[in-house]
Amino acid sequence: MIMTELPWLVAAFVTGLLSAGHCLPMCGGIAMALGQQTRGDPAWLRAMKLSAHGTGRIMTYAVLGWTLGALVMLLPLQKLQPLAVAVRVLSGLMLIAMGLYIGRWWLGLTKLERLGAKLWQPVKTWFARALQNKGLAPSLLAGMLWGLLPCGLVYSALTVAAARMDAADAALYMLAFGLGTLPAMLLPALLSSSFQFSNALRRVSALALIGFGLWIAWHNGAGLWSADDPHQHHHHHSLSAN
Fold first, then answer.
1. Which of 12, 118, 155, 229 has the greatest count of CB atoms below 10 A from its CB?
2. Would you say 206 and 21 are in contact if contact means Cβ atoms under 8 Å apart?
3. Rounded distance, CA 30 to CA 50, Å?
4. Is the pLDDT of residue 193 over 80?
5. What are the Cα distances from residue 238, in Å, to 79, 105, 112?
6. CA gap 239, 220 in Å, rounded
7. CB neighbours (10 Å) of residue 161?
């Protein structure tokens, strides 16, 4: 199973890395503030606190992935093969939307962020309170709440995770995705200053995500139009998320 999942985990990690063009302007300010808050601490304590922030955020991603994956498992997708394939095609389309968002060619994901912003309002207060407290436990809590920040890229990653149609797989996907976002968040925190992502690198990463999304959508779309043909059994193997 590990070998089977490895390509998807690598893809999730790389997706997180490629999201740096959005993560830096979106969350770089928060990461920088967290880094400044720990500047007076000994090096070992500062490292522990920053690790707690990142760990908490990734934990939230994993929990969200597990929850969404568990909900998808309740659907009779195995009996409705075309619907199952459609869910996987949607995950590819969401990756394309992610790439377009990072490249700033289409900002449709901001609509999802506006919806998430309504849920963020009460969490924002708890987040601010967690930041005021010192210690590893508040740092971990702040990181966990940070993971709930409205983000179209996280929503896209969750869609891909849900397409795994397995709670554990979805949690692992989001865990790998979160690990991929760590470098972009650690730089502002460690430097305690803003860090710019060049337009060229941002566009390259955006095109890579679009290409990945196109591959997923096309690969699974092949199964959509062959799913109703009883003479074609190979469509089961064409589902890249299996």
1. 12
2. yes
3. 12
4. no
5. 17, 30, 30
6. 5
7. 32
Residue 2 to residue 29: CA distance in whole angstroms: 36
Give phi and psi for 239, each to the nearest 5.
-80, 105
Average of per-residue pLDDT across 15-41: 80
Half-sphere exposure of 2 (CA within 13 A, CB side): 0
The pLDDT assigned to 231 comes to 43
Secondary structure letter of residue 49 according to DSSP: H
Predicted TM-score of the model (pTM): 0.82
Domain positions in the chain: 2-236
> How big is the chain by its Cα radius of gyration, in Å?
19
Tokens of 213: 């999304």
- The label of the residue with tokens 């869609």 reads 159
Per-residue pLDDT at 48 = 92
Which position has the token pair 């302007």?
A: 25
Distance CA 64, CA 173 (A): 11
Token pair 């830096």: residue: 24
Taking the chain, what is the end-to-end CA distance rounded to the nearest angstrom? 11
Single out the residue of 185, 127, 123, 147 nearest to residue 65, CA to CA. Answer: 147
pLDDT at 54: 93
Quote the crossing angle between the two packed helices 2-18 and 20-37, to the nearest 10°: 80
CA distance 129 to 180: 27
> Smallest Cα–Cα separation from 11: which of 172, 144, 146, 166?
172
The rounded distance, in Å, linking the Cα atoms of 221 and 183 is: 34
Distance in angstroms (rounded) separating the CA atoms of residues 208 and 213: 9
Interval 36-61 mean pLDDT: 89
Residue-level pLDDT at 169: 93
- How much is the pLDDT for 23? 78
